[in-house]
Structures are given as C-alpha cells and as structure tokens.
Amino acid sequence: MWKRVVSLSSLISYSKSKATYGVKIWNSPSTLISTPVYYGTLFKEKNPLIIFVLGGPGSGKGTQCIKIAETFGFTHLSAGELLRKEINSENGHIILDTIREGHIVPSELTVNLIKKAMESSDNYKFLIDGFPRNEENRITFERILGVEPNAVLFFDCPEEEMVKRVLNRKEGRVDDNINTVKTRLKEFSELNPHVIDYYTKRGKLHKINAVGTVDDIFDQVRPVFAACEAMK
Ligand SMILES: Nc1ncnc2c1ncn2[C@@H]1O[C@H](COP(=O)(O)OP(=O)(O)OP(=O)(O)O)[C@@H](O)[C@H]1O
Ligand SMILES: O=c1ccn([C@@H]2O[C@H](COP(=O)(O)O)[C@@H](O)[C@H]2O)c(=O)[nH]1
Ligand SMILES: [Mg+2]
C-alpha cells in the first residue's frame, strides 16, 4: 500500500491512498478537510481533485471558472453546457424543455454526462460548474461516481445583480429571459441552501462575494487555489 499527501493550500488538502477491497479513503494531513469516501473501481487510476462551483444564475460561475482553469490548470466542466450539448441527442427533448422552463434536469442524466466528461479527460483536476443544484443531484453524484468534492466554491450574489447580468448576457440562451430567470431564481433560493448547509457542515464551503469586478472577485478565489500552481 502507498500513500501520497498533496497539500494544495491551507484551504484545500487531500491525500491519496490505494484502493483496498474497493474502498479508498481521502485523508488530510492535519485537521483540514478529512473525508472518508467509498469508491468503486471508477477513478482507480485518476484520483480526481474535484471542486464544485455553485451560485445562482448570472452570479459569475462560468466567468470565474474560465480564469481558474487558465490559471491553475483545471478542466472546466459546466453541467449546463454539457446538457446544452446534448440537446440534439436521444434525451434532447427532455433537456431542452427543462432548460427552457428553468427547471432541473433529472439527476442521473446530468451525472452521467459529468462522469463521461471526467473519464474522457487526461486531467485529474476538475471544476464542476453549476452542479449540484439540489440534494438529490449531490446524492446521485456520490452514488454514481463514488466520490465527494474536495472543496465547494459558492458565489454569493444579490438577486437584482444576477437578473441584470443574465438579461445583459447576449449568448442566445433559451433561458436568458425574465420569465425563465424568475423560475431559476425561485428554484435556486429553495434548493441551493440545503446543498450549502451540507458542505458548510463538512467544512468544505468557501463563500465568495460575487459583487465587484471580475478581477476583484478572482482575487478572493485565488487563495483557495494558490498551492495548485505548483502542481501544473
Ligand atoms: N463580476 C462581474 N460583473 C459584471 N458582470 C459580470 C461579472 N461576472 C460575470 N459577468 C457577466 O455576467 C453574465 C453572467 O456571467 P456568467 O455566465 O459567468 O454567470 P453564471 O453564473 O455562469 O450564470 P449561469 O448559471 O446562468 O450559467 C455574463 O455576461 C458575464 O460576462
Ligand atoms: O446540474 C445542472 C445544470 C444545469 N441544469 C439546467 O441547465 C440550465 C442552465 O444551466 P447553467 O448552469 O445556467 O448553464 C439550468 O437552468 C437547468 O435547467 C440542470 O438541470 N442541472
Ligand atoms: Mg454558467
């Protein structure tokens, strides 16, 4: 059996231990994040570093993820983008209707897309943007992938600012209109707090004030990832 400890920063740290009878355990070298996780055979070789990136519609998750990915060598997987790319597939009508109405796509569908994208990447550092949106999403991810995130970023933004940003975004998204935004915000305000509470209790949550310039916000994000630079 071997064990390697990689300390990313005082905020994120983890170690890798070889699977024994299909069980892997994430440890921390001190009192930092310590999360026993049961693995199946998935990711036996990859030992992924997973950061969930949460926040309401228009809070700036995608914008910040692009900067994090460029600066710290992460692969950026936007759950919404993975779903949008599937709109022409077999399940496409379910996805399109759900997105257009501002609801949440069935968990297994989204989780399997995330899993496929992670498996087909050469990288082991992943930003999962806009997921999990509710407790069912979170539990389904843990069940199918057999792993928890190492840390969770939450971009905290007032509703008024989020609405303004979404309505000013000119990317032709079917859900960037006032009616759908209202539904998305309603679901977000009802469901996201449960996910936030869960990760707060597990000591994994890093709340970021999402008001300010893109660079100001990135200055708050940077320390969470600073020690990753050495691993690029
Ligand atoms: N700090 C900021 N100040 C002003 N505008 C911003 C800021 N960050 C991002 N934006 C702009 O706001 C819009 C929404 O940002 P972005 O797409 O990153 O949000 P998001 O959280 O990914 O939203 P969604 O959940 O809808 O995908 C974009 O047009 C982006 O350019
Ligand atoms: O985990 C997810 C992520 C997204 N959706 C659906 O997609 C749209 C757009 O997502 P963005 O993160 O804003 O790109 C979202 O409103 C949901 O309808 C989802 O169901 N599950
Ligand atoms: Mg986005």
From TrEMBL:
E.C. number(s) listed in UniProt: 2.7.4.3
Recorded family membership: Belongs to the adenylate kinase family.
Catalytic reactions on record: UMP + ATP = UDP + ADP
Pfam families according to UniProt: ADK (PF00406)
Gene3D superfamilies: P-loop containing nucleotide triphosphate hydrolases
Lineage: superkingdom: Eukaryota
Keyword Cytoplasm included in the entry's annotation: yes
Top-tier EC class: transferase
Listed InterPro entries: Adenylat/UMP-CMP_kin, Adenylat_kinase_CS, P-loop_NTPase, UMP_CMP_kinase
Keywords, alphabetical: ATP-binding, Cytoplasm, Kinase, Nucleotide-binding, Nucleus, Pyrimidine biosynthesis, Transferase
Name assigned to this protein: adenylate kinase
Entry's Gene Ontology BP terms: 'de novo' pyrimidine nucleobase biosynthetic process; pyrimidine nucleotide biosynthetic process
GO molecular function ontology, one term from the record: AMP kinase activity
